[in-house]
Specification:
Blueprint: H1 2-40, H2 51-58
Length: 60
């Protein structure tokens, strides 16, 4: 009986540690995604290089 109690408490601690590690990994991945999104964000609109847009600007 004593071995079962020790096993249960150990598995309970393992579950808590695994949950904390998972939450930490989730936070790190979210922060990394936010940093990457911030680095890729360009506030200036990109120029349109399609032929249709060029022709419409010329008045064709």
């Amino acid at each position: 009986m004593a071995e079962e109690k020790e096993f249960r408490s150990a598995s309970r601690y393992d579950a808590v540690i695994a949950t904390l590690v998972g939450l930490l990994a989730l936070c790190v991945s979210g922060a990394l995604a936010a940093i990457i999104a911030a680095l890729e964000y360009d506030p200036k609109p990109k120029e349109v290089t399609s032929d249709k847009m060029k022709r419409s600007e010329k008045g064709d």
